[in-house]
User: What shape does this take?
Amino acid sequence: MDKIIDLFNKYKKTSISIGVILLLAIIYMVFGRGNEDVDTFTVERTDVVQLVILSGKVQTTDKADLGFASSGRISNVSVKNNQTVTKGAVLAQLEIDDLLADLKIKQANLKSANVDIEAAKEELDLVIKQEDAKVQSAYRTLLSSGLTSVPRSDDYDVDPPTVSGIYDGQEGQYKILIARENSTLSDFSLLTFGLEKTKKIIDKNRPTMLGTGGLFISFGDNNIDLYHDTTWYLDIPNKSSSVYLSNLNAYNEAKKNRDLIIQNAEAEYKKIITEGDDDSSSVAKAEVEKINAEIRKNTIYAPFSGKVTNIEKEVGENASVGERVISIIGGNKLEIVLQVSELDVSRLTPRVPVSLKFDALKEEEFTGILQTINSRETEIDGVPVYEAFVELSPDERIKTGMSATGTVILGVKTSVLAIPKYFVTKVEGENMKNIVQVVTSKGKTEEREITLGLVGTDSMIEVISGLAEGEKIVSAKK
Assistant: This one.
């Protein structure tokens, strides 16, 4: 017995050490190893953002590879690489000396054929101008002849003022008032109403202008003081005049003659035009148009304003129909072409803003607008993708061909309850349920059904109901 005790005392420290090690091992197996499979999260408020990140390249909205519509030898290349050109500018041309010479001949023939037509048009315009002048003269005579001022009252003991001049205005009636504005002044005022509202100082030595239509009023040798505070009426035309009917007939006759003479002149003009169209004029026009069309086929024009990027042919070389000779890009707008997967294409809509970053400009962020998405897919390495076109404002630092990354925000919820998506277990049944394991106040766990909202790109998911801020949940990692 004593030997056993001595042996125990000899290895006492070693036994204690071994026991402690065994105890720690048991604790690790029960608790420590279990923690490797359990994750804990405290429910908190945060922002949940759902977005799509796409990659692509920069190109311009206007880009064209240009060639001739005819074949031939190049006689002129009027631009250089990187040269800026305006819309419609001539970029290159084939040998067209024969066409240009023929064009001059046809244009001369057309000019000769048009001489009679131009002369007839000038004659028609002259006839219309002359006949209209005759009618206007007869009308002015009708309005200006036999004009008489009529007193408002028969008690006036003065002669009616005399009206003279050639009237060039509207038909109607003048109401004329003669009065001294101030009894201490000697000047009289002439006021008109009706056709016009005017006011003038009466000139005692010569006729005074009546309105603005070309008429004048005078008082002869009568004392102007006798006309103070009198009112007179003047009808234009004066249908009571003895010359009114004869002037009216002359005016109507002038209109009939004008219409007849102009009608005859127009008929003569149309006859010349018809003869010209049926004869050499129409043929000459067609020949000129045909040659101009041939010249256009032998010429390359800039379809838009931009910059020449490549010239593949030189003067003296032959060019086939449609063969690329010059390339040009527009400089007004840049366009980013982003590749969209079939999973994301249905979530994008036009006119949404796109945040853009370029590999060459890593420190800056730009904003573009998503314009359109191709409805037809393109296969890249056997995977179907769709092209999304993003419009970007011009920037001298951004060049075509640059690699770009576009980010589109699909949804944002700010300061909402959110948890990592992998804490949620979906339980299938008659109604799909979303279940989480909640840590109770006693340190145990209980299942709880929750309602979910927006799923963020970073796997955070919005919790609409079922959890409160500060609660803890656990989940077995899968």
